[in-house]
Amino acid sequence: MHSIKIEMSINNNCHYSSGITYPQGFWASGICAGIKKNKEALDLGAIISSVPAICSGVFTQNRFCAPSVSYSRKIVKENTIRGILINSGNANAGTGQEGILNVLKMGEMGEKAFGLPPQSLAIAQTGIIGVQMDMNKVQDGLRKLNIEPCNSYAFAKAIITTDTVVKEYNAEITTLDGNYRIGGVAKGSGMIHPNMATLLAFFTTDAKVQKEFLDKVIKEVTDSTFNMITVDKDTSTNDSTFIMANGLSNIEIKEGSANAIQFTDAIKEAFINLAQKIVRDGEGATKFLTVNVFGAKDIEQARTCARAIAASPLVKTAVHGQDPNWGRIIAAAGYSGAEVNVDTTSLFIGPICIFDNGTPQGQNLKEANLEMHRKDVIFNLYLNIGEADATAWGCDLSGQYVTINSEYST
Amino acid sequence: MHSIKIEMSINNNCHYSSGITYPQGFWASGICAGIKKNKEALDLGAIISSVPAICSGVFTQNRFCAPSVSYSRKIVKENTIRGILINSGNANAGTGQEGILNVLKMGEMGEKAFGLPPQSLAIAQTGIIGVQMDMNKVQDGLRKLNIEPCNSYAFAKAIITTDTVVKEYNAEITTLDGNYRIGGVAKGSGMIHPNMATLLAFFTTDAKVQKEFLDKVIKEVTDSTFNMITVDKDTSTNDSTFIMANGLSNIEIKEGSANAIQFTDAIKEAFINLAQKIVRDGEGATKFLTVNVFGAKDIEQARTCARAIAASPLVKTAVHGQDPNWGRIIAAAGYSGAEVNVDTTSLFIGPICIFDNGTPQGQNLKEANLEMHRKDVIFNLYLNIGEADATAWGCDLSGQYVTINSEYST
Fold it and tell me: DSSP string of A169-203?
């Protein structure tokens, strides 16, 4: 086995770089290693930083989490890292002791292939549960994996499963001290309902950030973005979101500074962008749904209520049928666990009021029906109980969703 | 308006009585009052006891509960009752102040029509949310409602919505002191996922029971039956279960006696019977799923875990596709919130072991596949953490379900 020697320029000026290779010093790759059933699909990839990077992660709450999740959780906690090795086609979850050993092996094989020090490579996996990894395919694949400065797209392709589009993001942030960049790549398979799919998201930045601050930012931002297309307890065995920060822009982000506020906002924008792309690419989805809840008692209740509405199968089928069935929306708010008072509750579909302080507005049903025929449907629910607002994003539930998931074969 | 004078024989020996009219002294009726869109469907009905009966109920936890729920909760708490008046086609939920007044009116109109004292009639409603009741139709319907000793079937037909079959139950219980009877009728529209449908269930018995004991029994038995095809927080605005006991058999059920244990078991059997009928008639359902969880830490965790598996859209689509995708089952257990340990977890599909103390049993996949092709599919999950067991019942998720719910029109 030959090891790929990485000689990355500190100022990589690759003209076409996008996604996770947009910030300085991040290279990537994605190839076909034969792990997926479709023998032409990309399924092995890596992001590598030319210099050690701090990394923060949020991981699935599933108690049967995959061994790669436990492994990466530990790696990013204890070390700066150099990269993340990923595969799709096999989640390596529910694979017993052999699965745990295979993750350790993958880490070592990757570090050797890329010429990196031990314990410097995190791992993320997605795909079928309960099948052992074919480690020969990983080994052969690593030989072919050429890390390049403009290869974010290949990496993004290598992590998708039933996604129909590749999901990338990049932005340049201007500060008084100069510019830094943020890049990202994510996969769903896009169902809002979280147990439908592994959600993997990878972000890179060349900003100079402290680990403690980055840990705070990723937690805070995830709660109002990726967690609003998902429900904590329903995460898959492999859900993971990573941010790597390598500091190469030399723009320092100090907690409490104006730069820090701007950085948090920029990361939030990146997260929302990819979270929405995941929902738009939902399995069988034909519509994009935004649920805004205003005036809940506290932020937790606002989020719970918005998520309950966006996740309700009855609401989702009504959105699919383009029916302004507001009773299902109100019912979902009622069972969400959030405090509600029917006499102070109002509901708008788009700009059309359909339930005004507890009284149905039947005369507006025709106009509401037109709003339901848009590709992007918006529900605005006013609880008028407190000061907390939240937004959840979802999609409709179509017969196509059932087809995709019942024809998927073990 | 003429009022129907009820002269029921104390020993009603109606030969063909079944369902809720099986116990002595219970009469029923169901007619078409034109409340449903389908102008031939039955949609108004009543159960009447010839003598005052105690009544216990469990009602929806939905915070936007319908006014008939608040009304009936109060009626059964404070009084013995004479009957329950029901309609389908309109849930009368989300209908503001007018909806509340209409429930009061319905109660008074019913009591007058049947010649009953005030506050002796509970009310249950199901159907569309947010549309005002047409009280003229109720008034006209009440004129036609002939309460008869053998009319359980008509009542059962009058409460169904998208149900495809009528659901009745009856049993005679033999004690050392003589016999008593239990009858029941229920509607779903059968989805296991609780926010899909209003669940209404009505039970009658001529056993002589104390109100306090009946309150205990209904709560305890509901938790292991109807609540195992539903999730507390996800109940609709109108879910209600009633038991009326009129004592006409003169068989006394004293708390703590052998009779009391037998009575609780008999009620449990009645509840399980109708709960399973609801699931089997699930919207679009083609398969019946039983999820047994063994060895959970406590009963709450056992139930949570079993329900999470039976409710998971990914598990349900796998059941529809007849695929032994055990990874989805394990993943649902993992996110359910129940304490699990992968090394002590085993999973059987029917009698076939597919996951043995954390290790996949790939060699059994073919046999497991055969088990998935049965009409009744059984999952047995052994957590081996504690002593608590629970069972949940569900059905598959088919394209037909989406069609039913997206074509339903407001």
Answer: EEEEEEETTEEEEEEEEEE----SSGGGS--EEEE
Does the active-site annotation cover B198? Answer: yes
Contacts of A192 in chain B (CB under 8 A): none
Average of per-residue pLDDT across A10-28: 76
Which B residues 114-173 touch A at CB under 8 Å? 128-132
- Quickly count: other Cβ atoms within 10 Å of residue B77's Cβ: 12
**Per residue in B192-210, pLDDT tens?**
343 445 789 999 999 999 9
Chain A residues within an 8 Å CB radius of B126: none
ipTM: 0.71
Residue to mutate among A235, A361, A383, A402, with most B CBs inside 10 A, is A402
What whole-number distance in Å separates Cα of residue B264 and Cα of residue B213?
A: 10
CB contact under 8 A, B331 and A93: yes
In the block, residue with structure tokens 């949020």: A58
β partners of residue A294:
A382
Query: Is residue A187 predicted with pLDDT exceeding 50?
Result: yes
Q: What percent of chain A clears pLDDT 70, i.e. is strictly above it?
A: 90
pLDDT of residue B64: 87
A335 touches chain B (CB under 8 A): yes
CB contact under 8 A, A313 and B195: yes
Residue with tokens 């004991």: B213
- Comparing A49 with B227, which gets the higher pLDDT? A49
Does A313 sit within 8 Å of B406, measured CB to CB?
no
Contacts of A301 in chain B (CB under 8 A): none
In whole angstroms, what is the distance from residue A194 CA to residue A200 CA?
Answer: 12
Task: Supply the mean pLDDT for chain A.
Answer: 89
Catalytic residue among B126, B198, B237, B391: B198
pLDDT in tens, A84-113: 999 999 999 989 899 999 999 999 999 999
Q: In the structure encoding, which two tokens stand for residue B300, read together?
A: 């709450």
Which residues, including other chains, have CB under 8 Å from residue A25's CB and lie 6 or more apart? A8, A10, A12, A49, A50, A51, A206, A246, A248
